[in-house]
Each structure stands twice: as structure tokens, then as C-alpha cells.
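This is your field. Have a critical look at both lines of this record:
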Amino acid sequence: MRIWSLHPSQLDRAALVACWRETLLAQAVLAGRTKGYQNHPQLVRFRAEPEPLAAVGAYLSGLHDDAVRRGYRFDASRILIPGSLPERIAVTQGQLDYEWRHLGAKLEKRSPDDAARWRASTPAPHSLFTVVDGPVESWERIS
């Protein structure tokens, strides 16, 4: 499961679609609708929020907005609590940088055009997140 801290506009088609699917799974876990993935580390930051389902809903809403902008047809009715949060969630610069490198490695293998676009840009966070100083997040599984 990869729930990117990066802005959805920086993800290629494969990463965006996988992120949507995996975040819907995370939403199901947080809503108690499935028994799998209960202890997945990617859920730590959402569980830490006062309203975890609203937080994951805000994340999914950001993915949906970018998908619509690209002409994709993601089903917004699957978001249990759509919208935004009054406050953004912190993500460390180290985490953002780690994910940026991870995405770049994936793009180099599967999408030369997207890899070229990646090389010409810099990492930006999903609109749910605000960047703070710090290393890779403690919940990240570094590969």
C-alpha cells in the first residue's frame, strides 16, 4: 500500500490509479469494513488525526480532483466523508524527498515521458499536507 505524500499531479497514471484504489482500502480499514491491513504503517498518520475518516476523505478528494482534471472517471461517491480538513497534516521533508526518489525510480522503469517530466520538476505535497523539517517518517518502510 502506497499512500503518497506527493501531490497527485506529480503521479503518473499507474501511481494515481493505484493510490486511489489503495486509499479506498485504507478508508475501508479505518471504517471497520475489512479485517485486512489493520496494522499497515501507511495508516498511522490518518489514525493520528482527531477524525481519521475525514482525513482520509480529504486525501481521496484531492486524488479525485486531479483525476477529474485529467479526464479520468473516479467514483466520488465511494468517498465516505468528502471535502477538506480545517488544518493540514504535517509531513516531513525527509518523507517527501524519499517518496520523490521512490516515484522517480518507478517512472524510469515504466514511463520515459513521465520520468522526463519528473526530472524537470521538484516535489510538492498533496494539498492535505504541510511540509515540516525532519527525516523520513518513522512509519515508512524503506526499501
The chain has one domain: 8-132. The mean pLDDT is 94. Residues 8-132 form one domain.
